[in-house]
């Protein structure tokens, strides 16, 4: 999620606004990922793509690493640290194709250029 997400300030958990706390965490995560990217050889840096969304949060988080897609469903009954992690591999299965398409769309919908 981008730190300028217009919905961030509206997020609550148990009637407590958690937007400010999340914004701070997002900044730390972005800095951490940028530091990893900056340590890569220059010709490899573009291979680490860091994408965020600035629209309504999704029902799952997706991370793509080479031919693997990691999917974390956001479950109403569980906190994110106790939600399952699905690992999809390859390029040909219907599930992989679906989540690759979703991954590409997540970063193009209402996102700002140059976002971390």
Shape summary: globular
Rg computed from alpha carbons, rounded to a whole number of angstroms: 15 Å
Strand count, sense and barrel status of the largest sheet are: 3 strands, antiparallel
Number of helices: 2
Series of secondary-structure elements, N-terminal to C-terminal? EEHEEEH
Helix content: 25-40%
Low-confidence stretches: 110-116
Report the structural category. Answer: alpha+beta
Average residue pLDDT: 79
Q: What share of the residues does DSSP label as strand, in percent? A: 15-25%
**Strands, total number:** 5
Q: Provide the spatial order of strands within the biggest beta sheet.
A: 3-4-5
Number of structural domains: 1
Distance between the termini: 9 Å
Oligomer, anyone? single chain
